[in-house]
Each structure stands twice: as C-alpha cells, then as structure tokens.
Design brief:
By secondary structure, the chain is α+β, with helices and mostly antiparallel strands. It has helices spanning 3-32, 139-150; strands at 37-39, 42-47, 58-63, 66-72, 78-81, 86-92, 100-106, 119-122, 134-136.
C-alpha cells in the first residue's frame, strides 16, 4: 500500500471516529438531560440535604439568557411564581451548594390537565460540578430522600 493510500485510510477512519464520537456525545447528553418539569403553577420549597429550609435564596426564571422573573425563598424555604406561563430555565444558586438549573414549562390550568405540583428541591453539595441538586414533585419521594440523607424521618 502506498503512503498516499495510508493517509487516505487514516483520514477516513479519523472522520468516521469523529462522527461516531459526536453522535455518541449527543446521545449521551440527551440521556443525561432531565425532562422539563411541567406544572400549571410554579411553587416549591428549597432545603439543604438534611431537610432544613434555605431562607433568602434568589430563585429566578430565565428566558433567552435574561432573568424574566425572580423571587426569594421565605423562612420556610418556600417560593412561588403566580400568573406566569411559558418555558423558562428555573435557576437557584446558593453559596456552599450546587446550583439548580432546570427547564420548566408552566401551562395555564384551563389549557392543560396537569395536576398542581409542589417542587421539592434539595440543594446538592457545592463540590458537584454538574447540576446535582435533586428536584421532586412527589412529597413522599422527597421525604424518603431526606430520610436517606439524615438517617431519620423528615
């Protein structure tokens, strides 16, 4: 085989490998990315891994790279957005904890059969480089996670 054929073969193999890596990476990102949270009213509670409320934390809804709406958690860690509809990125960031960044779709109740859901958000450790805060729409799942984290009932 000539040197030119070796080079062509190496280029073809390299191109195929690059396509495979790109396709695999895209498929991996799709598997890794959580589904958008779908609600008709956005409200929730933000706690640390032991279930203690995190007060005064800014909770924002981002659209097109800009903050569209914001609020702060109260003394019981609760937050809510009223009369807001559409797709946003829910963003919660608290020093010493992992940030939360999830897509939410807020629909008008009359247009959708979604049941009311409270979001239960458990802040993840700051050491995480990814979004490792946990979001639950089931209070029992949330309570089980807190129990697992602390070793006692929430």
């Amino acid at each position: 085989m000539t040197r030119r054929n070796h080079i062509r073969r190496a280029l073809v193999i390299g191109a195929l490998a690059a396509e495979w890596i790109a396709a695999f990476g895209q498929a991996w990102n799709q598997l890794d990315k959580p589904e958008p949270i779908q609600v008709w009213r956005l409200h929730g509670v933000f706690v640390n891994p032991e279930g203690k409320p995190l007060e005064g934390v800014e909770v924002t809804l981002v659209r097109d790279g800009a903050v569209a709406h914001s609020t702060k958690t109260d003394s019981s860690g609760r937050f809510e957005f009223d009369h807001i509809y559409g797709r946003y990125r829910l963003h919660i960031d608290k020093a010493d904890y992992s940030q939360l960044d999830r897509e939410v779709s807020i629909a008008m109740r009359i247009q959708n059969s979604l049941m009311p859901k409270t979001l239960y958000v458990i802040a993840g450790p700051k050491a995480c480089t990814d979004d490792c805060s946990s979001v639950f729409t089931s209070k029992s799942d949330f309570e089980r996670r807190i129990q697992r984290n602390t070793g006692h009932h929430y």
